[in-house]
Amino acid sequence: MTTRTRPVAARTALPQRAVLTVAGLVIVLIGGASLLAPVWFREVNGIRMEAGAALLSETRAAGALLLAAGVTVLLGAFVPRLARMAAAVGAVGYLATALARLVSLVADGSPGGGLLVAGVVELALGLACLHLLRPPR
Predict the structure, then answer these.
(1) Domain count of the fold of the chain
(2) What's the short name of a Pfam family annotated to this entry (predicted)?
């Protein structure tokens, strides 16, 4: 019995797959929570959110965008031809978010422990995705 395997170059390397899987799942969870349970998700982070239709609409729309980006990053972990694009989406998204948190920290003050940790995680995931974009040696 023979098993059909793809050439090594066509497979996504395990470290790359791990980074894209973790990065994608985090975005999917955040996006999904923002889309499906926006009030609960914000309150978990100490953000009191009035249940007005306009604010809920904006929060859900941003959640849907994050969910779509997360699915894109996650697909790159399993579809080799999408891996580079997925790493770029992860790098740009996470690094932009980390930069925005830094700007907010300077302009607005500390948001509290949970969101500071989120910023560090976003920076780490962004740098990991960026690392995947470097040319092979």
Answers:
(1) 1
(2) DUF4345
